[in-house]
Write a structure and sequence with these properties.
Length: about 375
């Protein structure tokens, strides 16, 4: 078995492996393990991140009396047992199976329920579906940086008029036809080429990730988000190029334009070079395809029928949303931020946009995130 270097963690967090989790050997970071009987918090990272993304949050939550668990999710980091092949088992990455992963992990630690599941970016989607499918286990939910749109609808009242077949979304053709031709990053991430583009980036994985994290952070001065009016090419083209890319460019070329200076890198306190080196070493070792499979499950449309099993269901446990005030992710799908608050979640306690944070809110502003999480956990009953 490959011997990997230690994860650079605070002394109150330990790294361990848990076998037999829905076919996975899951790598987990754990805090608050010193005493038994603590309520559990489950923290779920997004792309392109790892359980390591929660290193600044876990000690404070553990100090407040929680058993805090943060896994490298299926497709990521030091968790093994998933298929890394583009032509492999895509269905294993669909949302209900990711929920099954988390149910297995919680049970393995001897918890019948968790006080809250907290997810960031794509982990926000998994957290939302955990709370929707198994509210008896996941008793509260915090979604971060990616609002929840609700469940997909079933074709309705079609007995006398068959439902229209799902057509290819015309927005992609319209984006490509703009005077400055564009493409949506999630559909780029679904291409066969995307993993190789990033894994073999001309600037190297480390420099690629530095530019990517910078471009989506509050350090990039043009991250000044606002709600878009519609899911249309003209409106989507207002998004930064890390979301709506130039048609002919890949992601490494896109973010290279915004690479911070050496002085800015040296001055970065929320992601110093030593922390970034852990991310880059892990992605250099594994590639990016495991995380990209999640996007493919969404863009293919193949797994929507399964999600329609829960059509009309809402998230009825106490919920909250936290994002960076400088994070375009809140608005990247027009109307979803509002839908989450008005229809998808019935017990939403608060939505918080943290100033001085872009997309990586729990890394950029961990103190503010810790305050908001503890306030939510104390208030939500």
């Amino acid at each position: 078995m490959e011997v990997l270097p230690d994860v650079p963690l605070p002394s109150s967090i330990r790294s361990r492996y848990v076998d037999g989790i829905n076919g996975l050997r899951m790598h987990v970071l754990e805090a608050g393990f010193e005493t038994s009987g603590r309520p559990c918090l489950l923290l779920l990272h997004g792309f392109p991140e790892l359980a390591f993304s929660w290193r600044k949050v876990m000690p404070t939550l553990a100090a407040a009396g929680y058993h805090v668990i943060a896994p490298d999710q299926r497709g990521y980091g030091r968790t093994t047992g998933w298929d890394p092949d583009y032509d492999g088992n895509l269905a294993s990455f669909r949302l209900p199976n990711l929920v099954r992963d988390m149910l297995g992990l919680v049970a393995a630690f001897g918890h019948k329920n968790v006080d809250a599941v907290i997810g960031h970016d794509f982990g926000s989607s998994v957290a939302a579906w955990c709370a929707l499918i198994r509210p008896d286990v996941f008793r509260k939910v915090v979604m971060m940086s990616a609002p929840f749109a609700g469940t997909p609808s079933l074709p309705f009242n079609t007995v006398n008029g068959p439902a229209r077949s799902a057509a290819v979304d015309p927005v992609h053709r319209e984006l490509a036809a703009l005077p400055r031709p564009r493409k949506h990053y999630q559909w780029y991430y679904s291409t066969r080429e995307a993993n190789g583009d990033m894994h073999r980036a001309p600037q190297g994985v480390h420099e690629f990730l530095r530019a990517y994290y910078h471009h989506k952070s509050a350090d990039w001065p043009d991250n000044r988000p606002y709600p878009l009016q519609s899911w249309s090419a003209a409106e989507l083209a207002k998004l930064p190029t890390y979301y709506i890319m130039d048609l002919a460019r890949d992601m490494p070329a896109t973010v290279a334009d915004e690479m911070p200076s050496r002085e800015a890198i040296a001055a970065n306190r929320w992601l110093p070079e030593g922390d970034l080196a852990y991310y880059s070493a892990e992605y250099q070792r594994t590639g990016f395809q495991g995380g990209l499979q999640w996007y493919r499950c969404g863009t293919s449309g193949a797994f929507v029928p399964e999600l329609q099993t829960w059509s009309g269901r809402t998230i009825d446990v106490p919920s909250a949303f936290i994002s960076g005030k400088q994070d375009w992710g809140t608005y990247q799908r027009p109307g979803v931020y509002e839908t989450m608050q008005t229809r998808a979640c019935t017990k939403m306690i608060g939505c918080h946009l943290v100033d001085g944070a872009g997309h990586w809110v729990q890394q950029e502003q961990p103190e503010a995130v810790n305050r908001l999480l503890l306030a939510f956990l104390g208030e939500a009953k």
